[in-house]
Each structure stands twice: as structure tokens, then as C-alpha cells.
């Protein structure tokens, strides 16, 4: 895509809402067991499409979502990085969180950290005062990204939506204030 078609960019990445042509790659990424190791289960095509639709609706409602992310240089689809709205039952919800999921071939190249930093800047531009992030305590890669982007450990908790997936609990919660 052309640079002016993005909502915002970072050095190497373009952030945008979801389009129908994202579904094939997004679904392939979401159905990969290794990529989805720290989620309840891999997603099928219908679940991936529903997620894209939820993200576009969240953007319409709140001005943010887990954005579709592309490499600016090549327009390759990397995955998603952005801001979400969490309402599950916990002492810290409802809250804005930052999260990511990118295709395996782009792991360990700095894109997630770069994209997450840019999304925190976007959160600040929106006037948000705090952003949280959570991951299974075993998900060392995501926790490392949280640390690299300046978030601080807050607490561990058992995610109420993951009671059937005991291997994902406890979750670690990080936060940053602006």
C-alpha cells in the first residue's frame, strides 16, 4: 500500500484497519499452532474474519484496535499490533491493552517492539493515560517486548476466560502511564 493509505507509520511499519484481502494471511497465521501457542486455541477462517470485523468496529467506536500491520518497504502483511479494550472480570478492567501477533517469519527482527512503541505513542496522541499488557507468564518473548517498550510489571493473575486452558495461567500484567 502507499504510505498515505496508513493511519500512521513507524520507521518500517504501516498501520491500518482491516481489509478483506487480509483474511487469507491472517487466517493462516491464526491457524498455526506455534504462533497460537499462548492462546486458547488456533482460530479457523470464520473466527479470524470475525476478529477482523471486531477490530474494525472497535476502531470506529474508540479510534484504536489491533491494527493490520505491513512492512512499508514491501507491503508484506506482518500481522497485528495495536490497542484493545478488555472487559473480562478482573480488578483492573475495563482497560486499554496493547497486544501483538505476527507471522513467524518476522519474529526476532525488532518489528514487534518497533510497532508496539509506535502504538504507545498513538495511545498518548489519543489522550489515554494508561495502557496495560498481559500474556501467559510462560510467554517470555511477549514479556520481553513489554519490558523493551518501557512497561513495568504489575502483577500475576489467573485470567478468568482461560480456566479451561490451565497451561496459560497465570498471566503476567504490565502497565505504562503517560
Automatic annotation (TrEMBL):
Location of the N-acetyltransferase domain: 13-169
Record's protein name: Protein N-acetyltransferase, RimJ/RimL family
Taxonomy of the source species: Bacteria, Pseudomonadati, Bacteroidota, Cytophagia, Cytophagales
GO molecular-function term, one example from the UniProt record: acyltransferase activity, transferring groups other than amino-acyl groups
Stretch forming the signal peptide: none
A Pfam family it matches: Acetyltransf_3
Alphabetical UniProt keywords: Transferase
Parts of the chain that traverse the membrane: none
SUPFAM superfamilies according to UniProt: Acyl-CoA N-acyltransferases (Nat)
Matches recorded under InterPro entries: Acyl_CoA_acyltransferase (IPR016181), GNAT_dom (IPR000182), N-acetyltransferase (IPR051531)
UniProt KW Transferase keyword: yes
Native source organism of the sequence: Algoriphagus halophilus
